[in-house]
Specification:
It is a single chain. Helix content is about 50%, strand content about 10%. With about 525 residues, it is an alpha+beta fold. It folds into four domains: about 240 residues, no CATH class; about 150 residues, no CATH class; about 70 residues, no CATH class; about 35 residues. The strands form three sheets. The protein has a five-stranded mixed sheet with strand order 5-6-4-3-7. The chain has a three-stranded antiparallel sheet with strand order 8-10-9. Its EC number is 2.7.7.41.
């Protein structure tokens, strides 16, 4: 079966340049910035050889695929400046430079310490979203107000990326007392708290320095010193310590502190999916780290595989991204108790379609069992349109789906294995050996489907069971993090946070009642 591969022309790429945008019109700035992010991420894929614009299913010879995706021999290295990297992608002239060479999952060095050790000089550029230059600088200036060393940092959430296409008719009051003009312009549809995650090397040392500089950021726990603060961070919940309702440079922020080892483990193992889930959606990386970039690429392709296991043979691009974006909300208490909009996931995807394409299109290209099955995907300019919802198709062959089961993150995979214990035909000793291997396996090792993996892959309700395992993975860490917030934020801030969520939940319930009432009235009228 021949499937046309998506095509992007150079004439399209020339319409936007990777350069700073002034804060003039918010709608123009946001749409242009999204377009920049998308085009920068796609340029390296456009430079593929012509033979890769048409893909066949498993009938394609492996040797031809390998030769056509050979990594570049250039030894040039790029520095980790987030938007500078995307700009260099646009400026690169070497034909055939691919950001993910064949076999990167199996051969990656997970103990890397520099960007030169990544599988390719452009590896992971799909993770870097481009935003307006002035807004990006405002975010970076926040980091400079912390003397404690921040090795990895990203901003995320509705304060950074819009979560709805609709313009707010009555936007809420801005939480920022004296924000920079760039923040005001970027959040013209309603000011929102900006959320950050700070990745640090040594938790207690970082809090010790930060307590000296910003004692007012901490609750009463800060009075007991950095030792207790770090123990609360590392031993309760998902290993994250949040300081909410903090004013920096006139901006209301919330920042979470996480050890780099905790981030990497969650990205590669899916222990809690607390940080991994956030990074499965578009974020603005402000400081990068080579090991975290490598781990996050594994996290993204794992999210893609998990979503595919929950989808039928035929589906749309939007359905795929809805599944991926929805992973981190499964088991989230806010969704369970209706403290979040039930349409939140679809709203996020609809508003950020181009960013989701940048994140996942290169990974979709790498998987041999999923293709775009739509004539639109072979036409010019289709990727620049957020409304181009292409049809997709995956190969339901048990071996190929079994390989996806086998290559899920080890901790998550062991939980899925346990839920299908009844299908295992070996002895108890064989089962113990299997589970030991699953729990200790290198996430970057070569992993091919066993008979047990194939048996799981053919289960009729596999989609439901994967969702159950996701919820079990997420539920306890998110619940304990919520309880921990009363300690880390303090009673006053914690109570304020709970009241905000309660108010939001009531508003959502009221909106749902009104929507049902309107539907009933409309049905009667018809």
């Amino acid at each position: 079966m021949t499937i046309l591969r998506p095509f992007v022309s150079h004439t399209v790429l020339n319409r936007l340049t990777i350069r700073s945008l002034p804060c003039q019109s918010t709608r123009f700035v946001q749409s242009a910035a999204a377009g920049q992010a998308f085009f920068a991420g796609q340029l390296i894929w456009h430079r593929r050889p012509e033979t890769l614009r048409v893909r066949h299913y498993s009938t394609s010879p492996p040797s031809s695929q390998s030769s056509s995706r050979a990594p570049s021999t250039t030894t040039d290295s790029l520095q980790p400046g987030p938007d500078d990297q995307a700009a260099k992608v646009a400026e690169a002239q070497h034909e055939g430079d691919l950001s993910m060479p064949p076999g990167w999952e199996e051969s990656a060095n997970r103990n890397i310490s520099s960007f030169n050790e990544l599988p390719h000089k452009e590896f992971g550029f799909n993770q870097h979203m481009i935003v307006n230059a002035e807004f990006k600088e405002a975010l970076r200036q926040v980091l400079w107000q912390f003397r404690a060393p921040i090795r990895y940092a990203f901003a995320y959430g509705s304060g950074v990326f819009p979560q709805s296409k609709k313009a707010a008719t009555n936007p809420p009051p801005s939480p920022h007392p004296h924000p920079p003009e760039a923040v005001t312009q970027w959040q013209a549809n309603g000011g929102k708290t900006i959320d950050f995650i700070f990745g640090v090397s040594y938790t207690q040392h970082w809090h010790s320095l930060n307590l000296q500089q910003h004692r007012d950021h901490y609750s009463f726990l800060g009075s007991f010193g950095s030792g207790l603060v770090s123990r609360v961070q590392d031993n309760i919940g998902a290993g994250t310590y949040f300081n909410p309702y903090i004013i920096v440079n006139g901006i209301m922020i919330k920042y979470g502190v996480v050890n780099l080892d905790t981030i990497y483990r969650d990205l590669s193992q899916w222990d809690t999916m607390y940080i991994a889930g956030r990074l499965q959606k578009p974020v603005k990386i402000l400081r990068d780290d080579p090991r975290i970039r490598l781990g996050n690429q594994a996290n993204l392709i794992s999210a893609l595989r998990a979503a595919l296991l929950m989808l039928p043979e035929q589906f749309t691009e939007r359905e795929l991204y809805n599944k991926i974006a929805g992973l981190s909300y499964m088991g989230d208490l806010r969704m369970t108790f209706n403290a979040e909009d039930p349409k939140k996931v679809s709203n996020i995807v609809d508003a950020q379609m181009s960013n989701f394409r940048q994140l996942y299109y290169p990974l979709i290209e790498e998987l041999p069992n999923v293709v775009y099955n739509d004539p639109k995907a072979a036409t010019r300019d289709w990727m620049s349109s957020p409304d181009a919802n292409c049809q997709m198709q995956q190969d339901m062959d048990p071996t190929k789906r079994g390989n996806m089961v086998r290559r899920l993150p080890p901790t998550f995979q062991s939980r899925l294995y346990n839920s299908y214990r009844r299908l295992f035909t070996g002895s108890q000793e064989d089962w113990t050996s299997l589970m030991s291997r699953a729990n200790s396996e290198d996430p970057f090792s070569v992993r091919l489907a066993s008979d047990f993996d194939k048996a799981i892959a053919t289960q009729e309700r596999l989609d439901k069971q994967v969702a159950v395992v996701v919820r079990r993975t997420i539920a306890w860490p998110t619940a304990t993090q919520s309880m921990k917030s009363m300690l880390t934020a303090g009673f006053r801030k914690g109570w304020h946070y709970l009241m905000e969520k309660r108010k939001k939940g009531r508003k959502i319930k009221q909106q749902a009642k009104e929507a049902k009432k309107e539907e009933k009235e409309k049905a009667k009228a018809d």
